[in-house]
Structure formats: structure tokens, C-alpha cells
Amino acid sequence: MTRFAPYLFSLMLLFVTACGGGSDDQQQTETQESQTTAQQADDGVRTIEIVGIDRMKFVVEGDEDGISTGDTMGDYVLLESITAEPGEEIRIRLTTESTLPASAMAHNFVLLVMDADATAFANAAARAKDNEYIPADMEDQIIAHTDMAAGGETVEVTFTAPEEAGDYEFICSFPGHYSGGMAGTLTVE
Fold first, then answer.
1. Which residues make Cβ contacts (< 8 Å) with residue 167, sequence separation at least 6?
2. Claim: this prediction has a pTM higher than 0.85
3. Cβ–Cβ contacts within 10 Å for residue 68, how many?
4. Residue 35 sits in the same domain as residue 51
5. What is the DSSP letter of 20?
6. Nearest in space to 185 (alpha carbons), one of 139, 133, 136, 118
7. What is the CATH number of the domain that holds 71?
8. Distance (Å, whole) CA 169 – CA 111
9. Which domain holds residue 9?
10. Which of 44, 50, 65, 101 is deepest in the core (most CB within 10 A)?
11. In this predicted model, what pLDDT tens digit does every residue of 111-123 receive, in sequence order?
């Protein structure tokens, strides 16, 4: 029986691990992730969940306070505008749904200053591949932006809405997406 003891011990260890005896590190990581999610939900920042789709559009799951939507786009509705109060803190969480490679389809969220020329910005962005399609010489025209998100990725940015009432355009700066209609308006009122 003693010559089988090492095998029996290994078998018991495998059984305990397979039956939920996860490591303390794994349990601690899961607890930290749960706490982070709960903290984000309780931090008082209005979070808007946006999805970037292959049709080069910003979409949301449905109507909610403070956003205006348009046509139905599959399981989503087109995001047309966001309304904010002056100085309101807003978090944009953008998820890209795509099976295409990142070089062909990725999205970001770029909020421009009120008097920015979005077309000129998008044209310059198309030449700024090495800077995630953010033209370095036009960064003074940006209020906030996310990184690029490829299919299955989520990025976010938290910013304070401008104090000055008016319309501020937001776009995706990936080449061709702004001209394809991937844009909307943040209305501060």
C-alpha cells in the first residue's frame, strides 16, 4: 500500500483542485474584480455603455435617460446624442463587436471641442496610425478620447462635460468611420 501512497496523494490533490478548491490568489483576484465593478457602479459617475459595430456606427442597447437614439441596428439602436449638464462627470465605456482583425475594424470615442472641424480632424486622424489615429498636432481640439478597441475589447474614458452650453461632436477616428456616420453629439445644457 505504501508504494501507492504518492499516486493516491496526487489523485486526491487533483480531485480537490478540480472540485473548486481554487487557490487563494484566484479567489483574491475574483474578489478584487467584483469590488472594482461594484466601486465603478457606486462612484456616482454616469456611465454610458456604447458599442461600436462593423457598420461603422455607435449603438446602445436601448433608450435611457440623457441619450437620444435613432434607427434599430440589429440588437441595438443607433446612438445619436448624449445630453449632459455643465460640469457633469461622464464615463464612456466603448466595446467593439467585430470578428474582423484590428487592422480592418477598431473603434474609439473622441469628443471634440465645440468649434472643432470634425471632417478636418478625421482626415488628419487617418494619417496618424502610429498614434492610434489621434493626430498629435490636433490634440488641442480633443476634450476626451479612448484608446482604440479591436473586436471583443472594451475601453473607457471619464471626463467632465464642458461648462459652456452647446453641441460638441464625438466621432470614431479610425479611417473612414466618421465619413461612414460614426459620430454623434454631446449637448451640454
1. 114, 185, 186, 187, 188
2. no
3. 15
4. no
5. T
6. 118
7. 2.60.40.420
8. 6
9. 2-39
10. 50
11. 999 999 999 999 9
